Amino acid sequence: MVSHPSRRTVRGALVATAAVVAAALPTTPATAQPSAADALAKYNELSEKASKLNQDHLKAQGDLAAKQGELDKAKGDLANAQKAEESLRGQVDLLTEATFDGARFNQISALLVSDSQQDFLNRMSAINILAADNADALKKLQEAVDAADNATKTANEATETSKKLLSEIEQKKADLDKQLAEAQAQYRSLSASVRNQLSQAGDMSNISVPAGTAGKALEFALAQRGKRYVYGSNGPDTWDCSSLIQAAYRYAGVSIGRTSYAQAAAGRPVSRGEVRAGDIIVYYSSQSHVAMAVDGIRAVHASTEGVPVRIADIDSIGPISVIRRIEG
């Protein structure tokens, strides 16, 4: 989890942004208004960049966890292969000892030492059994050796990949911290009245939800209104955009990915005109922000620095990349 606190981006449309600025600005000469609007726009831009870095960081963490799972499995496979190799090697050794202790025969020696025809047949049968057992043991031993070699190679590759992912995570974390610092500085540069407007929870009224999985997920998301946004947070008191959506569907009994990137591929695609309650709406070409539709007009989402989880107009949040439906 990202340890540096801040909040996720709202990226309001021009109408929404203008409304916030107009409501927040005191009566001043006209030359002051572009400066305030520019400051808010710059803040939104920095926040959106931080949001993408946050999703990149979360994805890298997920990749590392998956690779660690592969490494653990490879180590287990290696241990099992080594045990099998050791056991089979012992079996081959026993058969070899038996061979040189007198159990080894050929047809001539069997004929010479046999007391009867039946004794000869019995000895030949023993020869064939020993030969088959020895061949089978040798074959299995070679397979175990090959399996151990392959498991060793896989484990080594997984280890190297994990090291690279750890380095990547450290770099992404450094980039994220830098971007967060810039966004936070920009947020502090906003006027107190603008920050106060941004901090409002908005519509907190009771909203009916449909039956079924989507409705249950939406019920959870709506219950989080007013809670703060924190980059990398997984709840229950603070959220980032994708953790809110993941937790909402987990509450509804559906498992989806942690990042907005993964959520952009969940379920099936629907068009803007088909949007209904519970649909996942992913924003920006980078797919770095995600919200949940309340209906065909509104969505609930975890937004940005100083902006709590709240309802916004679907189209005011930002440019829509994809819309996904988990149920139906």
Automatic annotation (TrEMBL):
Keywords: Coiled coil, Hydrolase, Protease, Signal, Thiol protease. Residues 1-32 form the signal peptide. InterPro entries: NLP_P60_dom, Papain-like_cys_pep_sf, PG_Endopeptidase_C40, TAT_signal. Residues 211-328 form the NlpC/P60 domain. The keyword Coiled coil applies. Residues 36-98, 134-200 form a coiled coil. The keyword Hydrolase applies. Pfam families: NLPC_P60. Belongs to the peptidase C40 family. This is C40 family peptidase. It comes from Lentzea roselyniae. The lineage of its organism: Bacteria, Bacillati, Actinomycetota, Actinomycetes, Pseudonocardiales.
